[in-house]
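Researcher: I'm comparing several assemblies side by side, and this is the next one on my list. It has 324 residues spread over two chains. Same procedure as the others: predict the full complex and return the structure.
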Amino acid sequence: MADKPAVIRDTDNEARELARTLLAQARYASIGVIDPETGFPSVSRILVITDKATPVILASRLSAHTQGILNDPRCSLLVGEPAGKGDPLVHPRMTVQCLAQQVERDGEEHASLRERFLERHPKSKLYIDFPDFSFFRLVPQKAALNGGFGKAFWLMPDDLAG
Amino acid sequence: MADKPAVIRDTDNEARELARTLLAQARYASIGVIDPETGFPSVSRILVITDKATPVILASRLSAHTQGILNDPRCSLLVGEPAGKGDPLVHPRMTVQCLAQQVERDGEEHASLRERFLERHPKSKLYIDFPDFSFFRLVPQKAALNGGFGKAFWLMPDDLAG
């Protein structure tokens, strides 16, 4: 990682706690992938759960973000959605750069994620077992936390795992 | 553009109307850029206005997204934020792949954008004239509209301009 710019604060326990809370509470997120066709970064909305401090998404092979991470596992999540009205830049949010790992469809890991995903997102039962849908673990590489104007931190995977 | 997959519907006037509304009503958005340091797509939150069917953002040179678009103008916006509770995947949203163009600080274009930005985002008066802040036009190249589960469209710049 490059030298930390002066505008980035030293990571403290309050920042770590906020980062973990944002990740744990996220029901959905914006995911950025590289579009295999154009090379542009492409952003879409996905449902998310967190398993062992790792975001997990359910994604259809037919969707643009899945085509992206199957071609290049580098992706980012933006978590922390503004609640209601007010200045959206005051609301804390975090960008997590991740490497995507597809979860094998058979086996205990899939079964356990399936159960937890259904618990958090009951409507996903309509498509969770469709053959084109898979779980992907998005393994954090580094994160940028923005706790509001001027409150910026960089975090590493250990800071998120707690 | 590659051949349109079977899951993409033919663009009709209803889709164009929804796309223009999402763009015009957006107060903030998720922006995806390429991180110059890691090559990862990186997603953050920004305030937005729309000028002549083109999204315009106000961005600090110190921010990660500005570093990204100064290095590589390819970026994406996700507009269409879920309102309140409910299934976020039912809420319409649109991914717009754009090329970023910095607006010169002196001149009529900057003055006009400044006025409109302040009108829409009054709190930005606290930093809009800081020397590290600039406007960028995000010129649409193509867009993917998702009007809800199974309602996907591809749109071209003309579809957005109306």
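Model: For your comparison table: Chain B is about 25% helix and 40% strand.
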